[in-house]
Amino acid sequence: MAEKKWEAALNSLNAKLDELSDKAKETDETAKEARQETKESVDAKISEAKGNLTAAQERYCESVERSKSKASSELLKVQMNVEALQDKIQAKKDARDQKKLEAYIEDMIDYAADCHDAALLLLENARLAALEAFAAAVEYEEKYGEQE
Prior knowledge:
single chain; 148 residues; mainly alpha; 0% strand
């Protein structure tokens, strides 16, 4: 029923949600593997993750430009908070004595938990938006019929 006019957009949304699921699985595996690897290997993965983060931030900025909704402004606030936390974390990373390194480890664990919470919030927003889009498409077709 709601698959004619918006089929491509809904399929694209499903693909994006699948991508999020895959990325979550990949993140989990990376965290598990990091505990078993050498520092050099972990440093290489950190470098790769930073590159992936930069690419994701660029895609996010492009997405924000395309969609200036309230949700987008909230996501922009999250991004600014993430950047502020990253700056704070970098300052701590530069200090290598034991107590500061311990604090850095705790901060990174807290930061990962905060990112997890933000990701869950964003996933729930994406799920709600997808459901509302589908419901609106059904309502549209009920009111105005199928239109290609």
